[in-house]
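ingest -> validate -> predict -> emit
validate: passed (alphabet ok, no gaps, 522 aa)
predict: started
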Amino acid sequence: MIVTNPSVSFIYQQALDVDKLDISKTQALLAYSGKYTGRCPKSKRIVKSELTENIWWGDVNIPIKPELYEKYIKYAENKLLKPQEKIIYRIVGYAGWDKPYQQIVIVYCEEAYQALFMKNMLVEIDVNDQEILSLPSFTIYNVGKYKLNEVAVPDDMKDSSLDDTLVALNMDDRNMIIYGTRYAGEMKKGLLTWMMYCSQIEGALCLHSSANKISNNEDSSLFFGMSGTGKTTLSADPNRILIGDDEHVWTDTGVFNVEGGCYAKCINLSSANEPEIYNAIKYGSVLENVVVDKEGIVDFKDDTITQNTRCSYPLSFIPTSKCRDVGVGKHPERIIFLTCDVLGVLPAISRLSLDDAIKFFLSGYTSKMTGTEEGVTEPTLTFSACFGEPFLVWHPIDYADLLRKKIAKHNVPVWLINTGWCHNNISGVSKRIPLRYTRRMIDFIHKYHPAEIDFTNHQEDYLNEFNFYIPSHSYLSLIPEYIMYPYKTWEKTVWKEKIDLLSSKFAENWSKKIKDPIFSKI
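emit:
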C-alpha cells in the first residue's frame, strides 16, 4: 500500500510499532542506518547517454550502461510499486523555494525514518492537486535495504567494481536508485547532484553552500564549504534570517534554498555553542546514529557509532528562518569560503581577490572530516573542487566560469574563513579555532564593508600561493594573535615544513587537473 505524504504522527506510529524505533527525551525520532553511516561515493554511477556524454567523467562520475541501470531500476520499481500490504511511503515535494525554479521530487521508500527525513528535506507541496503529480519530476527509488547482488543480472552485464551498494542517477529519465545503504544522506546528496546537472543547463549556478539574510531579502550572504566546515552552524545566526544550510542555486534574480529542511552534524553539539540547532531536535526531527541512555538523553560527545551523527529537521524549526519570503534572498552582498585547515597555517580571516577566489574555489582546499564518507576516520587534508566535488556533474571550470561572471557582475567581495586548527605558541597546544572567535569574524564581515577596512597582504608569508588580505580592525582585537596571524606562532623550521607541505599539495592537486585541456583556460 502506497501512502502519499503521511502526517508526522503517522510516520512516528509506523516507526515505533513496525520498524521498532524509539524516540529521544526531546521526542526526536531515533534512527540507525546500519552498516553505512556516511555516503558511499565509490558506488555512485551516472547513466551514460547522449545527454550526459559531455559531463565530467572520471572518479566522481563513473558511467553505468543504460541496459544495466534498467535491470536495477525495474527491480526497485517492482519492490516499491507493486500492490502489497506493506506500507510504501511516497514523499512528494519541491526542490527549491523560488516558485519559477521549483522542481517536483518524488521519493519512494520502505522505512519510516527515511520518509520523515525526506518529508523534512523537501519543500512542502499540496498533493491534493492531482495535476502536480502528472508533471515532470525527479524520482528517487530507495531500496537501500536490499543488496545489489540480490538483483539477477547476466554476468556479461555486471559492473565488477560494484559490490553490495549502488547510488545511481539517470538524467534522461530524471530518476535515481539506491541499493545496499540505508543512510538517508544519500537521497539529499543525490538530489543535489541532479540540481548540479540541470541548473547549469538553465544558466543558474548550483552551489554546495548555506545562506542567510536580513529582512526583506536584503544583505544576503553565501557560505561555501564542505561538510564539517561550519556551513550549518554559522548560517544559523540569531541576528540574521536563515535561507538554508547546505544547497542553494544562484539565479538571475537572486539565490534560493533547494531544501525544505536542514541536516546538521551533531557531534559535540551543545546548547551553549549552537542553541538554534540544539533546540531544533524535537518532535518531527530525525536523530541519526546517536547514542542515548535509558531515558533517551543523547550523548552528543559519543562517537561510538560514528563521528557523522546527524539531525534532520524542517527549516521552520529554526526560528530565524521565519519571514515573508522563506528560502529566498537577493543577490549576495558577500561570499564566505569556509575551509577547515588541519595544518593550522591558513589565516583565520582574510579577503581574496577575484582571481584568487576562483582559484581557491576550483581548489576547494579543506579537511575531509571524520565519518562523512565511509573509511574517513580522522581529519584528512583534501581538495574538493567547488567545495562540492562529490556532487559535481559538469566540469569544475563550468561552475567556476559562471561564478566569476556573477561575482564580477554584482561586485561581490569574497572572504576566506578558516574554521580549522590553530597553534597556541604560549601553551604549545594545537586545536580547532574556538567557535566564539569564528562567530566574531562573521559578525565583523557583516558589520563592515571592505572599503571601511585596512588590509595587509601576506602573500610573502605564504610563498606566493595566495594573496591573503588580512583585515586590521578594533572589532577583531579580542581575537588572539596566534589565530589571526598563524605564521607568527610556529617555529620557523616547523612553519616552513608546513607551508612547504601545503604548497606541494596545492601544486599536486593542480598538476592532476592541468592535464585536462579545459584547465588551460585558467
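Residues 337-521 form a domain with the Phosphoenolpyruvate Carboxykinase; domain 3 fold (CATH 3.90.228.20).
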